[in-house]
Write a structure and sequence with these properties.
The chain is mostly helical. It has 16 helices and no strands. It binds inosine diphosphate ribose (R7I) and magnesium ion (MG) (2 copies).
Length: 344
């Protein structure tokens, strides 16, 4: 049996690589897909996954590029690593800004780009103020917090209060709307719970219950709690992907995407009709992309949770070869684990 330390290492790697792979493999579907006569998005994504394996030699050297999801997640991880597991708002904000200014073509959200340059400006006195000025002072509820938060879910051991606090505060650098930062809190906790779950005794209902407890504590309006309760019912009835989208959404906004990622993870623990893939990571990412809409982000968030649960062994080898940014994710996962375990 693998030691507890090597199991944790596998799960750290699985989560960050799962997030990168979901982003890279989901991104080609982000702007809609031309379906063949009688085809469904799900059957197209299944074919894509199957051919990814078969064409691995032909694909050699070909990378599926990552987008803003990974660009920002890497900055979150780099900042936590640099600050030895502590959250430093200025350091993280500067990294977001530099990453954006170096590679502005990564497909960033339409509004966040207005404030990213200012986050690196030392003259800005209150580093949270640019985000607070957005949307007439209400702040963004885009899913940009949730999409980048996996490293926070990993780096705080089983100290849930710290996970919640760092997820909320670091998201407020760009998303000051309660729905925006609470969505990131939910996603970070989902990664954390998956990381520490026992796959043998795992109970999806208990997982949702734990998330409900967190959201009951942190949210004032009950938006995520209500959706979590609906999700718990959906897990009993196996709805179509259209029904899932109707209930949980597939948009670029936090409360209409993050729960779809959580649902994708929970649903795909079991086989799914229409997805004849035995590997659970592959099934999860395929399912998440099949929800259409914000495919890179929903697949990335689902991949982060699933990877924390299954570990790196369950990530298909061919993904490692074709997804840009996988090697860096592996390295950051190992560095985060070292910090969490108290090493250098
Ligand atoms: O949240 P954010 O970083 O975008 C992330 C998404 C992911 O899907 C990425 O893959 C990338 O494609 O973008 O960026 P924001 O600009 O803060 O939010 C994204 C979008 O959500 C905005 O451009 C708005 O269309 C919408 N949005 C809102 N619309 C109305 N009212 C966010 N907040 C609001 C709001 O308060
Ligand atoms: Mg993106
Ligand atoms: Mg997206």
């Amino acid at each position: 049996m693998a030691s507890a330390a090597s199991r944790l290492k596998s799960r750290f790697r699985g989560s960050l690589v799962g997030a990168v792979a979901g982003d890279c493999l989901g991104a080609p579907y982000e702007c809609g897909t031309q379906l063949p006569e009688g085809g469904t998005l799900m059957s197209e994504v299944v074919k894509f996954m199957q051919n990814l394996g078969k064409n691995i030699d032909k694909e050699k050297g070909r990378k599926f590029a990552f987008t803003d999801d990974t660009a920002m997640a890497r900055s979150v991880a780099a900042s936590l690593i640099h600050c030895k597991g502590k959250y430093d708002a200025r350091d993280m904000a500067r990294r977001f800004s530099e990453e954006y200014l170096n590679e502005p073509f990564r497909g960033y959200g339409g509004n966040v780009i207005e404030i990213l340059p200012a986050l690196g400006d030392p003259c800005v006195k209150d580093i949270y103020s640019p985000a607070e000025s957005q949307f007439n002072g209400k702040g963004s509820f885009g899913n940009g917090g949730g999409m980048r938060i996996a490293p926070v879910g990993l780096c705080s051991a089983e100290n849930l209060d710290r996970v919640i606090e760092i997820a909320r505060e670091s998201t407020k650098l760009t998303h000051s709307n309660e729905l925006g930062y609470n969505g990131a809190v939910l996603q970070a906790c989902a990664v954390n719970f998956a990381l520490h779950a026992d796959p043998v005794t795992f109970n999806p209902d208990g997982f949702v219950e734990s998330l409900l407890k967190v959201m009951g504590r942190v949210e004032s309006d009950g938006v995520y709690s209500d959706k979590l309760k609906r999700m718990r019912e959906m897990l009993k009835t196996d709805p179509t992907t259209d029904d899932v989208v109707e209930e949980l959404g597939n948009e670029v906004i936090a409360h209409l995407s993050i729960l779809s990622a959580v649902y994708s993870f929970l649903r795909c623990i079991q086989p799914v009709q229409g997805i004849p893939l035995e590997n659970a990571m592959e099934r999860t990412i395929t399912y998440a992309i099949s929800l259409d809409g914000d495919t890179d982000t929903i697949a990335s968030m689902a991949g982060a949770i699933a990877g924390a649960f299954y570990g790196i062994e369950e990530v298909p080898k061919e993904w490692m070869g074709v997804c840009e940014g996988v090697d860096d994710a592996m390295e950051q996962a190992d560095q985060l684990l070292d910090i969490m375990l108290g090493g250098d």
